[in-house]
User: Fold this.
Amino acid sequence: MADDVMRLLWGPHPQPKRGPKPALTLDGIARAGVTIADAEGLSALSMQRLAEQLGKTKMSLYRYVPGRAELVALMVETAIAAAPEPAAGDWRARLTGWSRALAGVFARHPWLLDATVGPRLMGPNELSWMEHALAALDGTGLTGAERLDAVVLLTSHVRGIALQSRATGAEGPEAQLMAALGEVMRKHGDGYPSLLSAMASAAEPLAQDQALAFGLERILDGLEALITRRAG
Amino acid sequence: MADDVMRLLWGPHPQPKRGPKPALTLDGIARAGVTIADAEGLSALSMQRLAEQLGKTKMSLYRYVPGRAELVALMVETAIAAAPEPAAGDWRARLTGWSRALAGVFARHPWLLDATVGPRLMGPNELSWMEHALAALDGTGLTGAERLDAVVLLTSHVRGIALQSRATGAEGPEAQLMAALGEVMRKHGDGYPSLLSAMASAAEPLAQDQALAFGLERILDGLEALITRRAG
DNA sequence: CAATAACTGCGTCCGGCGGACACTGTTTCT
DNA sequence: AGAAACAGTGTCCGCCGGACGCAGTTATTG
Assistant:
């Protein structure tokens, strides 16, 4: 499994010399999978469903991909794509742009939240995101472990916002959940006074952009404090 | 569905007057499910498997739980349990203890990472964790939205650490993944200079406690800066 | 006491899933 | 002209979540 994923994501992809030309490509398969997952979620992506989309039978897919897990790994690489060019400015501006870009990826492909839990092997594109974030911290005086920890921290924050953004999305049955939470608070709010007070004084639409920016600034403030302490 | 979850998590649980005594209890079912998920992961938990553990047939479980999703919701509530009593000290000490306790929960029940993606209705225990964290921030001068954002930020960090802790766990096939990542860096490290440099200068075992503490201190530093700025 | 209503647990069946395997047809090498 | 390598397909298996109806049990009602 780990071997298969590694060959799929990192190559080489030996193209056969004899036999019929393959009608599909790895990239085409991954793109079709991303399309389905974007529209209907990761659970709607079955081999059968994907094969129908591609006009083939489901077993033909196994000529390209060893199994579903490897397919998803390929889709992740396709969906996140390569990290964008770093923004101009200091490390703080660069990490801000990086975080917002990552949040955009999660917004466009919410199923990435499901696909990237659990231990897995990262592909070139996913690694390029890490690389860009780490590069922004070069020369700040942080140790290697600290730079890694800082990037993980940023990533977790963006993930968390994406998670709650998906939960509070006004579309679909999620709205019922929010209504249910409201009902819970109306009935049992006495047991949670701080929560009740915080929710009451929070704006209604609970803007996700605000939440992303808030956490981002706290993290960057914390990092800046450490960096200047080290330098000074 | 949302209705079912709400009745399961928040009650009331009307106990029938006529008919045979139920051989099982919701709590017992949830505990058995937690045991299985702890030992073999959430994917190993099927209705069949759970019924075998309880010495019943699988269909009998549907007398207690409407479906698998509701069962998992119940298991989440059981596994996280109620939030521990807040530590003594200021908001910073309290949030530190809270975060470490939450990290402990994720360490004991790694499947919670899988079970708590996606929109869902929180139960009393899960809400009690939010309540405790928010209560620690009472009187800090932060707005309600800011307090909520801060708690989400902390939760995301703990989640992220738990996620990477599970990935780099020395046990099982995850070790192969780390070995594979090392092989990738050996082959393609040239394309990721900052990553290579950070990993080279990081200690080998990449201590998770260090990562948890690092992010925690950055977040709390960032919050403290905001709080003192508001107060001053 | 008997009848009945409510309830638990079980057996059967269904559609869908990921995947193993053997087979046919196609292409390019020796 | 083989023969080897390869693509796509059809069939089959075990497992999953879940719908449904049935048999046995218990407390209420007449």
Observations:
- Chain A has a mean pLDDT of 93.
- Residues 16-23, 56-60, 63 of chain A lie near DNA strand D (CB under 10 Å from a C1').
- Chain A touches chain B through 81 residues (CB under 8 Å).
- Residues 2-79 of chain A form a domain with the Arc Repressor Mutant, subunit A fold (CATH 1.10.10.60).
